[in-house]
Write a sequence for this structure.
């Protein structure tokens, strides 16, 4: 990580839905480089702003639509989670979900000058009712907003250091 990482900020985006949390950041790297980090599950621990990923346990080196990948996680307890890529457009969009059905979506926009605008959205609109109740009781929404921002800051630091 860069020494000045604590000075970098991602912009919080108001989604109009309290169950969806989003932010965006400009990264001084081409979309193909940023996407290569996002689409490699072995890199997710490097950019994880939630600090819950402890290791990658399964999956390909490059995710595509339908790819499955597993992570060892820790939030209060250790657990494993299996994710599936449910949205995909190379160098532009990737999103995955797990059993709870909420999604982590990354949208990349080529700014044409070697820079990329990245928007990350945590989207729980597809989650079943019981999962939404669990997220609410866990107070996940405010925590997730912070994690989204931190992930984008870490993604920027990783991409710009390559």
């Amino acid at each position: 990580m860069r020494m000045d990482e604590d000075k970098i900020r991602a912009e919080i985006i108001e989604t109009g839905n309290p169950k969806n949390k989003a932010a965006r950041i400009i990264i001084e790297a081409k979309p193909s480089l940023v996407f290569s980090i996002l689409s490699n599950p072995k890199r997710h621990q490097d950019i994880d702003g939630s600090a819950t990923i402890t290791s990658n346990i399964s999956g390909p080196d490059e995710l595509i639509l339908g790819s499955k990948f597993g992570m060892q996680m820790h939030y209060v307890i250790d657990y494993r989670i299996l994710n599936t890529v449910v949205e995909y457009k190379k160098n532009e969009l990737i999103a995955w979900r797990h059993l709870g059905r909420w999604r982590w979506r990354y949208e990349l926009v080529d700014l044409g000058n070697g820079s990329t605008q990245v928007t990350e959205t945590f989207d729980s609109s597809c989650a079943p009712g019981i999962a939404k109740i669990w997220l609410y009781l866990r107070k996940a929404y405010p925590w997730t907003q912070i994690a989204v921002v931190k992930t984008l800051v870490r993604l920027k630091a990783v991409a710009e250091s390559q």
The CA atoms of residues 41 and 143 lie 22 Å apart. The helical segments are 31-38, 44-47, 129-137, 140-160. The chain has a mean pLDDT of 89. DSSP finds four helices and eight strands in the chain.
